[in-house]
Design a protein that fits this description.
Elements: E1 2-4, E2 17-19, E3 31-34, H1 48-70, E4 86-90, E5 99-101, E6 105-108, E7 110-113, E8 116-119, H2 124-139, H3 149-168, H4 171-180, E9 192-193, H5 195-204, E10 215-216, H6 242-262, H7 268-288, H8 295-308, H9 312-324, E11 339-344, E12 347-349, E13 354-356, H10 359-369, E14 376-383, E15 386-398, E16 409-422, E17 425-430, H11 434-450, E18 454-455, E19 466-470, E20 476-480, E21 483-484
Parallel strand pairs: 3-4, 4-6, 16-20, 18-19
Antiparallel strand pairs: 1-2, 5-6, 5-21, 7-8, 9-10, 11-17, 12-13, 14-15, 15-16, 16-17, 19-20
Organism: Pseudonocardia aurantiaca
Protein name: Peptidase M4 C-terminal domain-containing protein
Length: 485
């Protein structure tokens, strides 16, 4: 048995509880190695032994929550890890108000002062959020190097969605929640994420910092073009920053979940069923959305199409949730060929999920999208129940005009095109314009600088997400080193 905080140290429910430690992940599944050597036991909260078993339990439960929702097992982390079978968990990596995933570990920190210590690894919300980054990186490794604000925002939203799904996978949490807010229509401890860590930010940094209040899935934030958002603001404002805009997409997900719950039996069982359906739609949406600048809409469109295969009404339910947050989906637009391309229709091997696109088609796309000789990856995605090819060009965007310190530095990003067929020929279904991709990338880097998320000096202390590195051929490039909490 261990002492376990099932939600967040500041959640107003009976915590900690004594629970059985989850068994280790089976060798054939994506697993964890938790640093420290304290054996399983019921340790007092705040001790290293408690923290070790708390973080371990939360990370395992986050993966198991998705597995239960999806009815499938998660067998590997991202291929970019040295050992994709094992993710290291560091329950306390030192002094900071932070937590991050960096393709090697999930790392958590502590900060003390005025008789209070905040451990980010003590919050199941925070551990589940970081585990969410790792799960999405395994599902969509291409997002790591896609430098658009909405792609970064969606990664944060996936972390918060993972925290929600993890919380709702726990039966006693569902019971507590429904006792408290039977219709999910008002604020509560489950839709609020990382209460304790946010309180630490408020105490140690100040109440005007954007992270000084929990992010809430129940919100009325409405999407607008990120470049029209303000750069600075407090925790209640929508600003152009990945965690801030994440609330829009998490809000869409939570509104889908609430609408699905209204159609279920009003019990904790019905709530878990609604959560599972919403989670499956989100997983499918994130798996299949092309990594375009308007990524929130791309995820929503794929969620609506996946829902539409269940029933027309469910497709409309997803569209309504996104519309409430200012994202009009027009999901069927993705299925309409826009432009004939050179070459025959793409061919698919559905058992291996491999797409074959003719060279003539790729060359035609290069001309039309202005992607020059950029390296390309071809993969298969599902749009509705149709297989289409995704052709992603890996382009470099010059950053000279963004900041004098970035003279000569490039930022890698992706320009994806969805290719389907029309009358046996290849046809373009959807692609961003190259000039839009360039501007969105430059905007993303400005936002990183404004939020101290880009370390110009690699020694920078507080978990930057990006650094400037030397590429083999001698080019200096902006490089992602991780996702923070
Ligand atoms: Zn994060």
């Amino acid at each position: 048995m261990i002492n376990f905080i099932s939600n967040d140290p500041l959640a107003p429910i009976h915590q900690p509880r004594e629970v059985a430690a989850r068994p280790d992940r089976k060798p054939e599944l994506a697993g964890f190695l938790v640093t420290g050597n304290e054996p399983e036991a019921v340790y007092p909260v705040g001790t290293p032994g408690f923290l070790r078993w708390q973080a371990r339990q939360a990370a395992i439960l986050a993966v198991e929550a998705w597995e239960e929702a999806l009815d499938t097992q998660i067998t590997t982390w991202a291929a970019a890890l040295d050992d994709p079978s094992t993710l290291v968990v560091v329950p306390d990596a030192g002094t900071d108000l932070n937590a991050f995933y960096d393709r090697a570990s999930l790392s958590f920190f502590h900060r003390s002062g005025n008789g209070r210590t905040v451990f980010s690894g003590a919050s199941t919300d925070v551990v589940a959020h970081e585990t969410g980054h790792a799960l999405l990186d395994a599902l969509r490794p291409d997002l790591w190097d896609t430098s658009f604000l909405e792609v970064g925002g969606a990664h944060e939203a996936f972390g918060d969605i993972t925290a929600l799904v993890t919380a709702l996978a726990d039966r006693s949490t569902r019971q507590d929640l429904l006792d408290f807010v039977p219709d999910l229509g008002t604020a509560h401890f489950v839709e609020a994420t990382a209460e304790d860590l946010s309180d630490g930010v408020r105490l140690f940094i100040g109440a005007t910092h954007p992270a000084s209040k929990p992010r809430r899935a129940l919100n009325t934030f409405s999407w607008q073009l990120p470049e029209t958002m303000s750069r600075h603001g407090g925790p209640d404002d929508m600003i152009a920053e990945v965690h801030s805009i994440a609330r829009i997409l998490t809000g869409c997900f939570y509104d889908v979940l609430r609408a699905l719950y209204r159609e279920q039996e009003q019990t904790e069982n019905g709530l878990w069923e609604a959560t599972r359906i919403a989670a499956r739609l989100a997983w499918s949406g994130f798996a299949n959305a092309p990594e375009v600048p308007r990524f929130f809409r791309a995820v929503g469109r794929q969620m609506a199409l996946a829902a539409g295969t269940q029933s027309e009404e469910m497709g409309r339910l997803v569209s309504r949730a996104f519309t409430r947050h200012g994202i009009a989906l027009g999901a069927s637009a993705l299925l309409t060929p826009e432009l004939a391309l050179a070459g025959d229709a793409p061919q698919f091997n559905r058992s291996t999920a491999v797409a074959d696109v003719q060279d003539a088609t790729i060359d035609d796309l290069r001309r039309r999208l202005g992607t020059g000789s950029a390296p390309v990856d071809v993969s298969m995605v599902q749009v509705d129940s149709t297989s289409v090819a995704k052709v992603s060009f890996h382009v470099d965007v010059a950053l000279d005009d963004v900041d004098p310190r970035l003279a000569g530095v490039v930022c890698p990003t992706n320009v994806p095109a969805l290719v389907g067929e029309s009358g046996h020929s290849a046809a373009l279904l959807h692609a961003p314009r190259q000039d839009v991709a360039t501007e969105e990338t430059q905007q993303f880097v400005r936002v990183l600088i404004a939020n101290d998320q880009l370390a110009f000096d690699q020694e920078s202390p507080r978990g930057p997400t990006h650094v400037v590195g030397q590429r083999d051929e001698g080019t200096r490039e902006l490089r992602r080193v991780g996702f923070s909490c």
